[in-house]
Amino acid sequence: MSLIKWIDFQSLGDERGSLVALEIGMEKAVPFVIKRVYYIYHTAKSVSRGYHAHRDLRQVAICVAGRCRMVLDNGTSREEAWMDSPTKGLLIESMVWREMHDFSDDCVLLVLASEHYDESDYIRSYEDFTGQARNS
Ligand code: T46
Question: Cα separation of 30 and 28, whole Å?
Answer without folding.
Answer: 6
